[in-house]
């Protein structure tokens, strides 16, 4: 937590931003190692075969290596003018990862028949919702900024009404996902939640002009943090909760600052 907080503070100034980025990365590395160690100990206490635990470790390490290489190459190749669209895409990956964590947690509980506690199930549904919005919204933002998607201004008739309907049905689906006990019903509702909020991410962002895109990218960054925080509640992981709250809060503050600088309200 100290590394995260210190890193975010140092990101506020150009001369310390690189060091702040490094501090935050170190904090995340420590968090990942701690979570892996804790998960391994819990599985051993449950009598899980040690070879199965080691396979899990190897898969995670492979993912870190592959993702680290891709991220390093990508960040080296991108021009500074292309940084906003890269940030948008990274926000989308963050939302997608939280969404997949919630789905994996559902699959794990359904497989081992642990039972679904209401609070963790509810936050799992919220994780899927916010993660889905972040993913598709960020992909649309990346496409508009890079000129690879939605090159022309897209107008959705009655956009606010459509978005409100999607949110309303999605929230009802989350409540059903939380309280219905049948696994097959939960699975169907989970798919409904995912599809509805993937669509909502598109309808929210696709009609926003390029001039306002930096603001929406900052807001989606906050969403990625909120999704991570909900995922932390869903899987009972304090590190995710704290890190997600930090990212969410700082993203909202940045969004409001950008709105004020542009003399526009967030609602606009």
Short characterization:
With 268 residues, the protein is mostly helical.
Structure description:
This protein is an all-alpha fold and 268 residues long. Helix content is 80%, strand content 0%. The protein contains nine helices and no strands. Helix 4 runs antiparallel to helix 5 (118-146), helix 4 runs antiparallel to helix 7 and helix 5 packs antiparallel against helix 8 (213-234). The mean pLDDT is 83.
- Helix fraction, binned, reads over 70%
Tally of individual helices: 9
Average pLDDT reading: 83
Encode the helix/strand succession as letters: HHHHHHHHH
Radius of gyration: 19 Å
Structural class of the secondary elements?
mainly alpha
Cα separation of the termini: 34 Å
Could you give a short account of the major beta sheet? none
Catalogue the unreliable spans. Answer: none
Strand content: under 5%
Total beta strand runs? 0
Shape: globular
């Amino acid at each position: 937590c100290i590394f995260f907080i210190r890193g975010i503070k140092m990101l506020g100034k150009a001369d310390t931003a690189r060091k702040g980025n490094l501090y935050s990365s170190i904090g995340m590395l420590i968090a990942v190692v701690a979570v892996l160690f804790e998960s391994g100990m819990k599985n051993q206490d449950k009598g899980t075969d040690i070879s199965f635990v080691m396979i899990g470790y190897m898969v995670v390490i492979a993912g870190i290596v592959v993702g680290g290489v891709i991220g390093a190459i990508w960040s080296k190749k991108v021009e500074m003018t292309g940084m906003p669209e890269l940030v948008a895409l990274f926000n989308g990956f963050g939302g997608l990862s939280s969404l997949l964590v919630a789905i994996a947690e559902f699959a794990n509980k359904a497989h081992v028949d642990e039972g679904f506690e209401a609070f963790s199930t509810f936050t799992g549904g919220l994780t899927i919702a916010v993660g889905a919005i972040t993913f598709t919204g960020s992909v649309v933002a990346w496409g508009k900024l890079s000129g690879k998607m939605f090159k022309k201004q897209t107008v959705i008739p009655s956009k606010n009404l459509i978005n409100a309907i999607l949110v309303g049905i999605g929230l009802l689906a989350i409540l059903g996902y939380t309280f219905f006990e049948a696994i097959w019903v939960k699975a169907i509702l989970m798919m409904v939640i995912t599809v509805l909020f993937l669509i909502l991410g598109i309808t929210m962002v696709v009609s926003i002009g390029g001039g306002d895109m930096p603001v929406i990218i900052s807001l989606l960054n906050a969403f990625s943090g909120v999704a991570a925080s909900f995922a932390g509640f869903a899987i009972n992981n304090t590190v995710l909760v704290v890190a997600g709250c930090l990212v969410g809060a700082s993203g909202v503050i940045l969004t409001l600052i950008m709105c004020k600088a542009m003399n526009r309200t967030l609602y606009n």
